[in-house]
Amino acid sequence: MEQKQPQLHRGLEERHISLMSLGAAIGVGLFLGSASAIEMAGPAILLGYAVSGAIMFFIMRALGEMAVEHPVAGSFSRYAYQYLGPLAGYLTGWNYWFLWVVTCIAEITAVGIYMQFWFPDTPRWAWALAALVLMTFINFLAVKAYGEFEFWFALIKIVTIVAMIIIGLGMILFGIGNGGVATGISNLWKHGGFFPHGISGVLMSLQMVMFAYLGIEMIGVTAGEVKNPQKSLTKAINSVFWRILIFYVGALFVIMSIYPWNEIGEKGSPFVLTFEKIGIHAAAGIINFVVLTAALSSCNSGIFSTSRMLFNLAEQQEAPSAFGRLTKRGIPGAALIATALVMLVGVYLNYVSEKVFQWVTSIATFGAIWTWAVILLSQLKFRKQLSAEQAQRLTFKLPLYPYSSYVSLAFLIGVAALMAYFPDTRIALIIGPAWLLLLTAVYFAKGMHRRQHGQAEEKQAG
């Protein structure tokens, strides 16, 4: 009698997937990185976040259209394989795996920095290592344990932002914390106008704004482990746009109404400033705790998604078969350990040379655009393969198809062109394609193209 193989466990509840989609989009970038984006564009950064948010909504709906019909682990890598060809699937899977490995290295390094706020005499690497071990252990427990931790991590971030928005609105409308004098919103145009650096300032900030959204597409990676994919994925994806508006645009609207935008970058985190203004003197400690959970949350999500992507690549015979094995709890154990070990090397590299780390992270920024573009191209091909009747029966359609797909693709190409134009981000357009060329060389050197061609012929003959 043939023994039944363990399968990925569908242990993620609707509340897990719903908060994970939001938690992935709210990272350290909003709490600390928003200051540099404000510096580039001034109050017009609100426009950058709103337009980019709309594009991300279309990308997520394109992913959702396919994920609801075919809920599988490593979704967009599998869809690229199915609709764009084996090479596209292979490149997308390995590219996304590396993208999140790099992001996790950055996050656990950040954990070390944040812990030094309370323990200044301890070595940074010790906290980074502790964070990596803890997050790997959580991912090993069960998919439900991962979902539970991610739920609470996301909740901490959400509560902090909602509190700041409510406090800020109280100050803007009623002068709470400002001696009863309502601040109003005149700061949005007082200091050089709404576009202090013109449209070019907004364009310069776009790549930073888009990469703040990196992680939203992770909903698709969880598709193979969601209890009720159609209901949970539909709800999570539909809520992405208005949540982005509230948490990004809403928070930054409040901050820039209270403070002149040109002072924010000089005085540290905008969130710390807002809490201090209301009279909460422990603001720095509170925000430090929140950004610590944000970093742990991002690392937790990264380890989850990279291990699933590696598992998916092994299933398609594009990674060692050992990575396709599951534990009794339905966790891809070997893929999880391999990912954690690579992150360990990355942490070491980061402390040896900061420059090496900057080069590696530039691949991650390029990788984000590649991933989103592949989602859109896969969806276009997916639709073209459907008959009019099948397209009509789709339960979760991309709005304004096909125009929304083409506009989103054009926007991503535009952001890539802007990255090539500005010297600070140009390196990503050199290293990113070089990384894809290296992966392609391995693909052909290992003879994967011949194996895929043989499988396709077998399928046709059958």
TrEMBL record:
List the GO cellular component terms: plasma membrane
Task: Kindly give the PROSITE patterns that the UniProt entry links to this protein.
Answer: AMINO_ACID_PERMEASE_1 (PS00218)
Signal peptide positions on this chain:
none
Q: Which domain of life is it from?
A: Bacteria
Q: Does the keyword Cell cycle apply?
A: no
Question: What biological-process terms (Gene Ontology) are attached?
Answer: amino acid transport; transmembrane transport
Q: What is this protein called?
A: Alanine glycine permease
**How does the record classify its membrane topology?**
Multi-pass membrane protein
User: What is any Pfam family matched here?
Assistant: AA_permease
Q: Kindly list the residue ranges recorded as spanning the membrane.
A: 20-38, 44-63, 97-119, 125-143, 155-177, 197-219, 240-259, 279-299, 331-351, 357-377, 398-421, 427-445
Localization in the cell: Cell membrane
Q: Is this entry keyworded Transport?
A: yes
Ranges for domain Amino acid permease/ SLC12A come to 16-445
Keywords, in A-Z order: Amino-acid transport, Cell membrane, Membrane, Transmembrane, Transmembrane helix, Transport
Q: Where's it mainly located?
A: membrane
